[in-house]
Fold:
Amino acid sequence: MKVVGLTGGIASGKSVVSGMLADLGVKIIDLDKIAREVVEPNKPAWKEIIEYFGEELLLSDRTIDRKALGERVFANSEAREKLNEITHPRIVRELFKLIEKYRREKEEVVVVDAALLFEIKIDEWLKPVIVVSANEEDQIKRLQERDGYRREQTLERIRAQMTLKEKVRLADYVIDNSGSREDTRKQVEKVWKKIMEA
Structure:
């Protein structure tokens, strides 16, 4: 089974590309979904996060306020490292379980959609890797529209991740999402055809 990686910078349009691949019938494993599941109330990662960051991060339903946690970790690299230390091994474990499930089901190919694909070093066993890129101004505009952040906050988030330039350098395929939706779709179809023929 071929296990393909899909990543990009924050607000580069990775979810758009992931949706287009799903439209082509591709099985997608969404790492962000797994990341939300491993921190559900009373799970081990949830307990460790509350122990370290404090109960003030909890919403009324006892789930973690992801926005508040994001603000804490984006502004503090030590806190970000601690959160990664708590969550990343658990996320990767769940990811392996899902890949194994698809392997047993005789899927020909799956795509792992992961914003931090290079950062958590899973690119070593995902081949090929597709990176979705966009120019920084587009990223800023999308983040402000999507999350209502001020410009400084958006830049803080963009710069907390590995640069898009670096991700593009490590990519096997790049999809530039700076143009129209139709232009992106054409690139997705072209890249996918190449991957399936390889």
In short: Residues 2-197 form a domain with the Rossmann fold fold (CATH 3.40.50.300). The beta strands are 2-8, 27-30, 109-113, 129-133, 173-176. The two ends are 13 Å apart (CA to CA).
